[in-house]
Amino acid sequence: MSDRPDMPTHPTADEALREEALIEDEGKQPIFNLPGVLTATVALLGAIYLVDAYLLPDLWREWLLVTFAFIPLRYLYPFAEEGMRQIWTPVTYSLMHGSFQHLGFNVLWLLAFGAPVVRRIGTARYLLFWIFSAAASAFFHAGLNWGEQTVLIGASGVISALMGAACRFAFPRHGGYDRTFGHLYPRQSIVGALMNRTVAVFVGLWFAGNILIAVGLPLLDTGSDAIAWDAHIGGFLFGYLLFGLFDRVR
Known about the structure:
The protein has 10 helices and no strands. Helix content is 59%, strand content 0%. 32% of the residues are buried.
C-alpha cells in the first residue's frame, strides 16, 4: 500500500488577506507606519492647542473661541449678521480642544480608529469624511440644543464617525479588531456588520457608555467642562450608516 501525500490546506479569506498585507508591507513596522495625513492631523491638532493655550492672550483666545467654535445659538441670527461663521464653524470646532487631557484622549482614539480608515479610503476621501462627519456631529448636537449658547469644540465627533466606519470592515469574522490590516477586509452591509459578535458588543458598549454620560455619569474625565455625548452619537451614526459613500471600490 502506497502512502498518500498530505492534502494541502487552503487558507481562510482572513488569512489570505493577512498574507497579502504582510507581503505588501514586508520590511516595515506597521504599528509605527502611520499614514502621512493622519500624522499631519495630529500635528495640526497639537499645534492649534499649543498656540491657543500658551501663546495667545486671553482676549485673542476669546475671539478664537467665538469665531471658530460651534454654537447652536448662532443659527438663530440671520446670515447677514453672523456671516461665514455659520459656514465654517461646523468644521473648525473639530480642530480645537479645551485642555491637554481632552486633546490627548482624542489623539489616542484617532490613531486607533483613524489608521485603518485612512489606509482604506485614502487622503482625499479622509479629508472629505472629516468635513462631513464634523458637520453631521455638530448639527446632531444642535438639533438637541437648538438655540442654546452651548460651545462645542473637539474632534470626538469625527473620531466617533471613524469608529462607526471601522465597524463596517475592520473587525474580522474570527473576532477582534485589526488596526494594522483591517483595511483589506471587505466592507460589510449595515445589518451584516452587526452579525459580527465583536462589532455588536462594541457598538452596544459604546452606546451604553454615551447614554450613561447623557444621564450625568461621565465614565472618564477628558479635562473638558462637559462631554458632548450627542455629537458622539451623531458622528457614529454618520460613519456607520454612510461609510459606503466614501469607500473605494475594491
